[in-house]
Amino acid sequence: MTNLPQAIDSIARQRRSVRAFKPDPIPQDTLDHIFAVAGTAPSNCNAQPWITHVVSGDALTDMREKLIAAVKAGEADEGAGHRDNPYVGIYKERRIGAAVKLFEATGVGRHDKEAREASFLRNYEFFDAPHAAWFFMPPAFGLHGAADLGMYAQTLMLALTAHGMGSCAQGALGHYSNVVKRELGVDPELHCIFGLSFGYPDEAHPSTAAITDRAPLSDLVHFHG
Ligand SMILES: Cc1cc2nc3c(=O)[nH]c(=O)nc-3n(C[C@H](O)[C@H](O)[C@H](O)COP(=O)(O)O)c2cc1C
User: Fold this and answer.
1) Strand pairing report for 51-56 and 131-137
2) Are 130 and 21 spatial neighbours (Cβ–Cβ below 8 Å)?
3) Global pTM?
4) Backbone phi, then psi, for 193, in 5-degree steps?
5) Which CATH superfamily is domain 17-83+125-204 in?
6) For range 161-188, the mean pLDDT
7) Where are the domains of the chain?
8) Does 220 score more than 70 pLDDT?
9) Residue 171: CB within 6 Å of ligand 1?
């Protein structure tokens, strides 16, 4: 019998954002299994508002080209809300902390604008992952749907980790969901907050050294009573 407490602790702690993948595709039966596990996530009223599109192979190569062209042409989805900036104060500090770790690990100089841009564009190359997923939801779900989709995606990421795979959640993929909807024939009314690149991690890549830390528990959790 598996030691369940140890299993969940270790899977949650092992999960990290993977930003370098091997090209090997995940077999379809494994994909079916992982997405079924993701679907066990809770949701408001069990509505399961996630509408997931997984793109692989030549379709992903095409998507990569289309997205990079759209990024370079500045054709971001105006409805994606990415121009709001919640990163002020302590949130800005944490954001910078995570970015500095990635830049240091991958040799991107603090003032090297070109290298920083190339690093950002890696989002739209899916960090060379063989698969990318976009999570859509009907627009009326709003914040409730965002909570549901977050739980679904975290369950998916933990399942991938437990099975020896890795992933990176990417708001950057949501910023151009207009392009993705057009290419995949998805209802343009659906909302997409983020996507996910996933596959087998390339552990030899320098980005692997960028391990984020967390704020102390006492800064984040307030116990009463
Ligand atoms: C909803 C969401 C959107 C994210 N967007 C991006 C992104 O666009 N690009 C990226 O490289 N990482 C992105 N991340 C990864 C975060 O930077 C990462 O989770 C955070 O720095 C903590 O690091 P860890 O995942 O390795 O624990 C995103 C994470 C989440 C949950």
Assistant:
1) antiparallel
2) yes
3) 0.96
4) -95, -35
5) NADH Oxidase (3.40.109.10)
6) 97
7) 17-83+125-204
8) yes
9) yes
Q: Which three-class secondary structure state does DSSP give residue 193?
A: strand
Q: How far is CA 177 from CA 89, 141, 186, in A?
A: 29, 17, 10
Question: Candidates 16, 17, 123, 193: which one to mutate for ligand 1, based on the most atoms within 8 Å of Cβ?
Answer: 17
Query: Which of 147, 142, 136, 139 has its CA nearest to residue 195?
Result: 136
Q: Decide: 14 in ligand 1 pocket, CB within 6 A.
A: no
Quick check: 1 pLDDT over 80?
Answer: no
> Per the structure block, which two tokens stand in for 203?
């552990």
Closest-lying ligand 1 atom to the alpha carbon of residue 127: 11
pLDDT in tens, 188-206: 999 999 999 999 999 999 9
Residues 6+ apart with CB under 8 A from 20: 127, 128, 201, 202, 205, 207, 208
Q: Which residue has the tokens 């800005």?
A: 92
132 contacts: CB under 8 Å, gap ≥ 6? 54, 55, 56, 60, 63, 126, 173, 195, 196, 197, 198
Residue 19's Cα: distance from chain center in Å? 10
Structure token digits, residue 208: 């692997």
Ligand 1 pocket residue status of 16, Cβ below 6 Å: yes
55-112 residue pLDDT tens: 999 999 999 999 999 999 999 887 766 667 899 999 999 999 999 999 999 999 989 9
| Cα distances (angstroms) measured from residue 8 to each of 1, 12, 60 | 14, 6, 32
